[in-house]
């Protein structure tokens, strides 16, 4: 049974007939319960679900990175939901009903801060991925003290290893330790920067490789 707080003008909590009410992030809402669909598994619905599945499988292991990378967009919505919308609209590839994420087009962080310049990775050491880049802290709005955000995603294991506040941009080198169980696995590599004021750069996809 639904309840209406503070009289008829208050917020609705629960269900009254086909009207559902609730509160999210302090915002009261109501919605109409959808009517049943004669065929809930139409081709279009299956394709959309497959796109959602591919997107969530990619984003879920990276949600801590996303919470920093999309923080400025989390206004009356979560950073994860904003990232999900971005990936769905810009980074899903494939032929129905088989869809996957185009990592090169997928942003794990999004912002106006200057990005990484000439990044290079090295996966030849067991349990490590080495990142190097050129110091571009004198250009545009980059700062020498911007912190590196590094991420190695293992799609086979559906998990990630990352650093959210690494070395300064001006340092130009950092090593990310990864599980030795990743040895022989294909991994996808991303990097971005975060400034002291929380401003971030667009993430850069640094390619895929086989962990040592």
Main beta-sheet annotation: 4 strands, antiparallel
Order of helices and strands: EEEEHHHEEEEEEEEE
Q: Give the strand order of the largest sheet, numbering strands 1, 2, ... along the chain.
A: 1-2-3-4
| Secondary structure tally: strands | 13
C-alpha Rg, in Å?
21 Å
Poorly predicted regions are 6-10
Annotation field: number of helices: 3
Mean pLDDT across all residues, rounded? Answer: 89
CATH superfamily of the largest domain: Immunoglobulins
Query: How widely separated are the two ends?
Result: 58 Å
Q: Indicate how many domains the architecture comprises.
A: 2
What is the CATH architecture annotation of the largest domain?
A: Sandwich
What kind of assembly state do the chains in view correspond to?
single chain
Helix content: 10-25%
Structural class: alpha+beta
Q: Which CATH class of the largest domain is shown?
A: Mainly Beta
Strand content: 25-35%
**CATH fold-level label of the largest domain:** Immunoglobulin-like
Question: What are the main properties of this structure?
Answer:
2 domains, 212 residues, Immunoglobulin-like, 3 helices, alpha+beta
Commentary on this structure:
With 212 residues, this protein is of the alpha+beta class. It folds into two domains: 3-32, no CATH class; 43-210, Immunoglobulin-like. It is 17% helix and 35% strand. The protein is built from three helices and 13 strands. The radius of gyration is 21 Å and the shape is globular.
What is the topological layout?
Blueprint: E1 3-4, E2 12-16, E3 19-24, E4 27-32, H1 43-59, H2 63-69, H3 79-90, E5 92-95, E6 98-101, E7 117-122, E8 128-134, E9 147-154, E10 159-163, E11 173-177, E12 186-194, E13 204-210
Antiparallel strand pairs: 1-2, 2-3, 3-4, 5-6, 7-8, 8-11, 9-10, 9-12, 12-13
Helix pairs in contact: 1-3
């Amino acid at each position: 049974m639904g309840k209406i707080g503070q009289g008829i003008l208050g917020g609705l909590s629960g269900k009254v007939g086909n009207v559902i009410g609730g509160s999210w992030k302090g915002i009261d809402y109501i919605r109409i319960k959808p009517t049943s669909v004669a065929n809930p598994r139409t081709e279009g619905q299956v394709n959309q679900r497959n796109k959602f599945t591919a997107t969530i499988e990619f984003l879920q292991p990276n949600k801590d990175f996303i919470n920093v990378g999309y923080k400025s967009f989390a206004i009356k919505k979560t950073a994860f939901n904003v990232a999900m919308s971005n990936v769905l609209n810009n980074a899903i590839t494939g032929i129905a009903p088989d869809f996957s994420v185009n990592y090169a087009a997928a942003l794990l962080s999004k912002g106006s801060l200057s990005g990484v310049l000439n990044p290079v990775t090295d996966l030849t050491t067991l349990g490590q991925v080495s990142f190097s880049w050129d110091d571009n802290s004198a250009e545009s709005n980059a700062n020498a003290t911007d912190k590196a955000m590094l991420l190695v995603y293992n799609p086979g294991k559906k998990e990630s290893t990352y650093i959210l506040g690494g070395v300064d941009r001006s340092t130009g080198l950092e090593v990310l330790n990864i599980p030795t169980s990743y040895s022989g696995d294909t991994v996808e590599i991303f990097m971005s920067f975060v400034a002291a004021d929380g401003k971030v750069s667009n993430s850069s996809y640094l390619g895929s490789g086989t962990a040592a």
